[in-house]
Amino acid sequence: MSFRQYEDLRRTHLPVVKSGGKVCGASIRRPLARLFILAITAIGLSKPATAQNGTFTVSAAPGGIALAAGGGGTLSGQFGTMNALGLGTPGAGVTVIPLTNGALYLTHYQINISGLPNPHLGAVTAFVNSNFTHPAALIMQSCPSSSTCNASGNFSAISLNAGAPTTVIPAPGISNQTVTVGLAIFVPDNNGAASFTGVDTARITLTATDTTNNKNFATAEIRLDTPVGETVQTAVRLTLATATGGLTITPGADFSMNFGNVNGLGFGPGAGLTTVAAAGGVVYSTPYVLQPSFSAFRSTTATIKTFVSTTFAHPTVLILRDAAASAGPYNNIGTTAGTATQITAAAADRSSITRFLGLFVSNTNGATAFRGSDSATLTFTMTVP
Amino acid sequence: MKKYFTIFALGMMALSTAAFAGTTATNSNTVSPTLQISATVQSAVQLTLSTGTAAVTHCAVTPTGGTPDYTMNFGTVDALGINAGNCNKFAPVTPGTTNAIYWSDYNLNPVFTSQTTTNNTITAQVTTDFAAPNNIFIVRDSANSATVPAAATDFTAVSTATPDTIVTNAASGSTQTRFIGVAVTPANGVGVTGAKSATVTFTLTVQ
């Protein structure tokens, strides 16, 4: 069936659609009914492209994004909301793979080649005929039928050049059958002047070639613009990690650290701890690592502050202190958001910042002395201006 | 309708801010993870010795880093007070009858933390005495004070049976000066000469 034949058949069958128990005429004016038709088209129909000797059909794959047959021989869909850190739940039919320099949002779709005379084979290529208007923020990628298309390494950028397209079904091609291929959008870390948040769209042209006679027999276009397109959001992440030679930081809600047994004389510091002399007691010190990540901001640096949001129950015996170096000086960390201690005003994206957390233990005796377990909470706040 | 839907969707995305955990957020410029810090405070006591500074001369208190913790050497001594020893001496009042005392000052440095009381004592006891025939024994200043002894009679033998209290209720972190020495008796007989050593155990108790 050629594309024109398919279009004729579709026009024949579409005019009468039963919806909600009512029969809608061919001249549908109700917007809801129009949407229903659009959905039916996306789910039930695939788009056969213009054919000379064979038929080339592009359709949504199970578990992939919805691709609706649109006007002018196209298929339309979208990846939805994305960010360079791969945070959150991706759009329906989209899988996100966080990478060290961005995030890859991938989906699958199907290509069916039929009607080729035996032993002819068909190959398919793709190029971006209308790229995103913010190419530093969104990069179209493709995975060929020869790969599983489940890992970032299976994908590569789609050519922007019609004369040198990207392989989708590699030569010598396939006989009449359906294959699943991958389509992805790489959202790189993108801060600074080229940063972008908002909606963008792109279009890809697929071309099927009969590799036996080397003739292109069909084309199709995927438009990533429906109903909205690709929405890039800002994303921020701040994690804490164990530093080499430091106390273990355990992920939880959100992180925890246990200094173990401490005393006012600094005897027997546990693994990962060192002691530093201090007036009125001793400071148990440990290095730890701050890992800031952020994307889609005009600024390329962030500010990180911390304050004691929950003080120890014995705040004169145990005091949290901060230092830039192991030997100090150790300064008390602020106990309110307004008096938060600034760790850095120049945190770079995906950097690792080693800092030193000190626990001052008083050597007080008598009525105000304390022995036993206690805990406090530090709140770290990263802000990207 | 499609136009309206598009506008609605854009509006919803512009207004939404998603935070997925304390460590991450989208459509936002700030994130605030927390770190819970735990510790168990224990009480602690420390008693160190160091070379004195009160007397005219001082026998060095030398930390060994092992066992015993410290050593002090009075040098060559005799019952007539002829040898100078390594620090100070009182010659016998009646040579051949009373003892010669070779002595030194030393410092005690008690430190204690997280104690519910500041009441404390430091005791001394000879836990390993000089070998027989015991013609030499450990003595301390009888006054248990920082006052420099003036005569041999200002010294008392350190008990080998029960601890002698030599400091009471010292402030944590303070330096307590005391005096220790060896008394050499005029005894004669087998084994009264040669190198000899004894061990004194100091105990700090806060209660």
The number of helical segments of chain A is: 2
- CATH architect. name of the largest domain in chain A: Sandwich
Main sheet summary of chain B: 6 strands, antiparallel
CATH architecture of chain B: Sandwich
- How would you sum up the global shape of chain B? elongated
Please estimate the helix content of chain B. Answer: under 10%
Which CATH first-tier class of the largest domain in chain A would you pick? Mainly Beta
Order of helices and strands of chain B: HEEEEEEEEEEEEEEE
What oligomeric arrangement do these chains adopt?
heterodimer
Broad structural category of chain A:
mainly beta
Tell me the span between the first and last alpha carbons of chain A: 57 Å
| Mean pLDDT figure of chain B | 91
CATH fold name of the largest domain in chain A, please?
Immunoglobulin-like
Please tag this protein with its features:
heterodimer; A: 385 residues; mainly beta; Immunoglobulin-like; 7-stranded antiparallel beta sheet; 6-stranded mixed beta sheet; 2 helices; 6% helix; 51% strand; disordered N terminus; B: 207 residues; 6-stranded antiparallel beta sheet; 3-stranded antiparallel beta sheet; 1 helix; 7% helix
What does this protein look like?
The complex is a heterodimer of chains A (385) and B (207). With 385 residues, chain A is mainly beta. Chain A has two domains: 184 residues, Immunoglobulin-like (Sandwich); 140 residues, Immunoglobulin-like (Sandwich), CATH 2.60.40. In chain A, 6% of the residues lie in helices and 51% in strands. In chain A, the strands form seven sheets. In chain A, strands 3, 4, 8, 9, 11, 12 and 14 form a seven-stranded antiparallel β-sheet that branches. In chain A, strands 5-6-17-16-10-13 form a six-stranded mixed β-sheet. The longest helix of chain A is centred in the first third of the chain and has 14 residues. Chain A is elongated and about 95 Å long. The N terminus of chain A is likely disordered. In chain B, strand 1 and strand 2 form a beta hairpin. The N terminus of chain B is likely disordered. Chain B is elongated. In chain B, strands 5, 8, 9, 11, 12 and 14 form a six-stranded antiparallel β-sheet that branches. A three-stranded antiparallel β-sheet of chain B has the order 13-10-15, with no helix packed on it. With 207 residues, chain B is mainly beta. Chain B has one domain: Immunoglobulin-like. In chain B, 33% of the residues are buried. Classes of the chains: A mainly beta (385), B mainly beta (207). At the A-B interface, helix 2, strand 19, strand 21, strand 23 and strand 28 of A face helix 1, strand 1, strand 2, strand 3 and strand 4 of B. Strand 21 of chain A pairs parallel with strand 4 of chain B.
